[in-house]
Amino acid sequence: MVNYQSDPDMTESSSSESNVIEVIETVIDSLDQSDSAMVNETDGGHLWKFKYGSVEVFVQLTGETDEDTFTVWSTVLPLPAQNEPQLMKKLLEMNWMSTFEACFGIFNNQIVVLSSRTVAELSPGEVSRLITVVATIADDNDESLQSEFGMT
């Protein structure tokens, strides 16, 4: 058994980032339905990807400072789409009625469900809720949106 000793030079923010990373990985492990989770670590932060139902969910943590961001998103429909004015109306109505802390948006010419906030005062409960809300809303709506508005 390895005995880990605390590093006296370790700052509170580094410990805080480690805790956020651990929480993110725990939540992803609980939601990942096909053992597909992957992580990419760079100087720019961490990016996780996992499969939830019929969607891929991305989780990005840009760093450890209060100004860094925690973002979760999942693609539900590629653009262009059929009847885009009606699609946009429907998405705006859904943003008002049924997306909680998430929302629909456009990213890289795709309709996504997303949630983003700064890392400042980010709690484990918020991490869990935001990942779960985005994954669930995306999985609950991707097939119906693709059926109604998809080009294929």
Structural write-up:
It is a single chain. The protein is α+β, with helices and mostly antiparallel strands. The chain is built from three helices and six strands. It has helices at 12-31, 84-97, 124-149, and strands at 38-42, 45-52, 55-61, 69-78, 103-107, 110-118. The chain has a six-stranded antiparallel sheet. It is globular and about 45 Å long.
Spatial sequence of strands, sheet with the most strands: 1-2-3-4-6-5
Topology, number of strands: 6
Radius of gyration: 17 Å
Q: Roughly what percent helix?
A: 25-40%
Instruction: Outline the biggest β-sheet.
Output: 6 strands, antiparallel
**Element string (H = helix, E = strand):** HEEEEHEEH
Structural class assignment: alpha+beta
Distance between the termini: 55 Å
Keywords:
single chain, 152 residues, alpha+beta, six-stranded antiparallel beta sheet, globular, disordered N terminus
Task: Please summarize what this structure is.
This protein has 152 residues and is an alpha+beta fold. The chain contains three helices and six strands, in the order H-E-E-E-E-H-E-E-H.
